[in-house]
User: Fold these one by one.
Assistant:
Number 1:
Amino acid sequence: MRLDQRLIAQMIEPGTRVLDVGSGDGALIDHLFRLRGCDARGIEIDMREVTRSVAHGLPVVHGDADHDLAHYPNDAFDYVVLQRTLQAVERPREVLRQMLRIGRHAIVSFPNFGHWQLRLKLLLSGRMPMTAVWHTPWYETPNIHPCTIRDFIALCAEEGYCVQQWMAVDEEGERAPWRRSIRMANLFGEQALFLLRREGECPPPSEES
Amino acid sequence: MNSTAPLDVGDHQHATFPDGLDLECGVHLPSLDVAYRTYGQLSPKRDNAIVICHAFTGDQYVAETHPQTGKPGWWARMVGPGRPIDTNRFFIICMNVLGGCMGSTGPRSLKPACAEGKVERWGTDFPPITIRDMVRAQYKLVRSLGIERLFAVVGGSMGGMQVLEWAVTYPHMMLAAMPIATAPFHSAQNIAFNEVGRQAIFADPDWYGGRYWEHNVVPARGLAVARMMAHITYLSEEALTRKFGRRVRQEPKDAQAPEASLAMFGDVFEVESYLRYQGSAFVRRFDANSYLTITRAMDWFDLAAEHDGELPAAFAGTPVRFCVVSFSSDWLFPTSSSRYLVRALNQAAANVSFVEIETDKGHDAFLLDEPDFDRTVRGFLCGVADHAGLA
């Protein structure tokens, strides 16, 4: 399991209902079931990964974030997770709405387009930047909706979502040291990880955030 | 055996329920026979039983040589020691459906004795039955074996309809359901295919209004045509092309050339002789009245009918874990119908897995060698066993 998946798992209360959208090889839901006693299920777009997950006894359906979340009822889950996929969906705002409709919490991770290397490359070369994280040329990338950490926070404010927890994460998935300043995180964080709730449902802020 | 002689019912292992069965149509069947086979051992806690539901023309001989045809069990590659449905671990029950012709009560069974003591077969007088009636007959047998909760119910095609009906009718009697290559209702296209098959049977001069046994014949021609047509729907264009292409059959040299017009329409192409063989083999083991009764039961199948067309309502609050499987080249029960089912299950917040197996073998793929499918079946059952804490 990737390190950032470990960070996601730590955000999830034991014994809860979890939907992992884009569950890949099923590592996270397997972990959540075995070690945290969760009723964890997955949706995955790649049929080979689906078959592999089901063959490992994991409850995974073939489907995708854009088209299949609408078919779940309100409050079906305690957490809905979207890992490193928000930038590749057709309608990110609608996907977030669906996540917070069917789940009480949304956990979203995405690669940060505000990272200093990207800014610098675009400024100096005038070409679409390519880095270890953003490694596909513009004409082939599935990442059609890249955003920065500040963009995402602005969208959450616009939609009235409450950011219960956020962190910057490096490419290996290790938690990055930028914990207090969003501007610093937006400049130096390669990935971002957010725990959201619906408007007015945030608990009182804790020390660690 | 003469292929046109009425079939011998034979002696199949069965249980008789003298209290009969109340059918959905309102008729009471005075006595009920359920023919079945079991494999493996029922655990002391009686928690390892799996019911396998057979498809339309299948039967209870799922994992052993068929006593009449001498062919291997229809799912022997899936069910057995060390197989994906492992008889070393699970206790398997497979029953001939109500309305069938392999030992369970059906149109070929004898009517309960009339006043004059005359013995007569049901034939076309057999009451119309539904998929739910089939499942309720199976339920009686399962309970009679002392099983209060099934580990799983598994089946493909019409077997998958029974799996869904089990899950809707007895949701607390099973942990898991595996509906394969099936749909939550029979489509207009599938009803249409069934109707062509039925009309072929009715058009046979040997049909005799459904009382063909009184004339010591069976409507072999009509039944064979029905089977040939249905068989095409079980395959795919790719599979037919791969198996036969446009290859022409090599006639033996010494065969007397018939009239030109007959030669023109004889079984010139390999695909034709294949279908003819399938048709003629079928009439030796299947009863025409069963064919009619069971196709009608399929046509009436619609899980949402009781819920004003709202399929998710049929699964509301279900505790059953589902694994839905479709096959990419299946056009009889296409992936879209499985996806429709999966979305309804999601709407009911059911625990569901859904896999579409990539294959060019069409609807029949669930009976054939598909390694991804085998892994899915094995993995799903193991996962459920893990969750349930089954040893």
Number 2:
Amino acid sequence: MSLPWTEKYRPRRVAEVVGNEEAKKQFEEWMRSWEKGNPSTKAALLVGPPGTGKTSLVLAYASEHGYDVVEVNASDERSSEKLKAIVGESARQTTLGGTRKRIILLDEVDGIAGREAAGGIATLASIIKSTRTPIVMVANDPWSPRLAPLRESALMIKFNKLRQREIVSHLKRILESEGVRIDEGIVAEIARRSEGDMRSAINDAQILVSTGGAAESLLATLGLRDRQKTSFEVLAEIFGSTSAASGRASVQGSDMEIEDIITWVYDNILNQIHNPQAIADVFKLLADADLHYSRVKRLQRWELLRYVAPLLGAGPGVVKHMYGEKGVKFEFPSTIRFMQQTREQRALIQSALTKIAAKTKMSRTKAASEMLPFLAEMLRKGEKGVARYFELSDEEVKALIGLGGRQLSEGAPAARAAPTEGRTTRPRQTRGARRSP
Amino acid sequence: MALQETIPWIEKYRPRSLSEIINQEAIVNSLKTILSTHSVPHMLFTGPPGVGKTATAHAFASDLYGSRYIEDGHFLEINASDERGIDVIREKVKGFARTIPIGGIGFKILLLDEADQLTSDAQHAFRRVMEQFSATCRFILAANYANRIIEPIQSRCAVFRFKPIELEHMRKAVERIASKEGLEVTSRAVEALYEVTEGDLRRCINLLQTASTYSKKIDENLVFQVAGLAWGGEVRRLLELAAAGKIEDARKQLRLILYVNGASERDLIGQIYRDLFYLSIPEKKKLELISLLGEVDFRVSQGANPELQLMMFLANLYSASQAGK
């Protein structure tokens, strides 16, 4: 086989990239902000299913506008050290040498897996902060919790599956340049089977042609690709499971990480199940799965992993079935949305805490529990002097005041009612958790 | 004119010398003896929060080196739970203890606060640091729990156990502040302060200052109400939402407490434990929930997911409160 068609016919200009017009526009705008020397964000995160033109768009833009692309495959460079060396280096060289413009392209960032994931992603996030070269990251699953820290510092550009007619017309153009004729029906069939994945469609077409026979029988042997199940499909299986065995199979047969499945299931329980006892039961099983999984991780006791799959995979479905619950729709994890919505507030509180901790010589955690509640209350009462003492900004003060406070006048609960006479008969508060045994 | 600062009272009324430390007479006497001989051992201060461990370490250093003990480089405080790992701590100690200040008394003092936040591996590493620098540096470790400090460290330290503040000592401390700040604090209010803070002087003073923003006359009702606002309120609301079956709102509240307020899950679990007793659910169910919370507490300490484990608890609280109806 000569040059793969996927390379041979890779677009050289942005206009040649098929489909996803909105994403193309966003990307070009983002690159323009770099050219003006005032990037809107330091990094862009292109997310979408395979074969939808994410990498092609970057390469096309680069060749059209005279950039060199430094490619790093994030899932190959296992260690965060390596990642840092490569990404850090080329970012620096640009600022010093600067003969030719560069784009750093990080492929498969959601593939940074396993024990080094946290370190790798964290390193990446810190590199992004200081980079003076545009960093483009490419990922498939936009909802991977592992990407959360990146999502906060990067412009997210979404790619959708390509339409069948977009694939058909592109295939036809390629076949024409190759001087090959294939039956229209077969081209349509290739496009249909690709499920919106241009790369696989082009590969299939090339195999068909290069093996000589543009025969339908050959098409049948190509078969459907073994596609990864989407998170929604896994979720539907889990909430539809009626036995320990089938639940276990759902978890074991999926490509999702256990943590991700836990997050997705956890965040969908309340959409699916409404009976109080059923909710309690299903959370109990899920919490047990989390317990077993935490032992696997913390103690590296991999043999205990087998207890996770049935609890996680069958618990929700079995309980749902038992109580005759008819949940309908699944949602993207609300955890992700919550963290995005509260991002600013969290950052302000953390920066306030850092100041408070420094002045009172406490740890931040301790300052959060010992100082914050009182400060928030004083600030709510208009005591601005403490804010000045801790050198808090107006925004930080606002964030502290916003900490779910209720004024006395709004009928907030007292620690307890004052006793009307003598000592209270209430059980004494013990501070068991805090006092030395 | 510069706008006026309000100094937090816990800073304003921080003891400047050992003679200002209250409630810990035995410890103060021992430390004064140590001062007079200048032969200072490594020390481990243990005891519940807000009883004066850190304050005593500072007061001791101030008495030993003079009031510029920090500026002159005799004393360094490191917070174990804020420093990222034992390597960072080791570097800090190294930088601090490498030299002896001229005109000093031959050694410096390093305070490691919240020392029980170090893992036992990190503590073993810290013990080696102590050995390495013991010629130029004395270490004071402060911790809530002695039994969370590894034995080899305990055996190298003089251990001082700080007592919870007694009511009469708290009364004196409150009266002193009240007279300087022009407050009128009733006797019952002091008892209320003592009850809700359980002998934690830091909380007591913070609470007093917060209450003073409402009124210069402080009675027991105000104390209880401000205490409810300041740290019970959020957790109480969490439990109320769950018990009322507003389970999605409860989840949101849980996330606010854990992720936005920045509270530690340990503090949250501790507060849930305290509030659990006052919920109106059948007592048998209450006992089951207490046991379940113990399980959650242990699991979280072993690395399980705090939000998920606590939601499990809240879901059970919901179903238990339904059962009572």
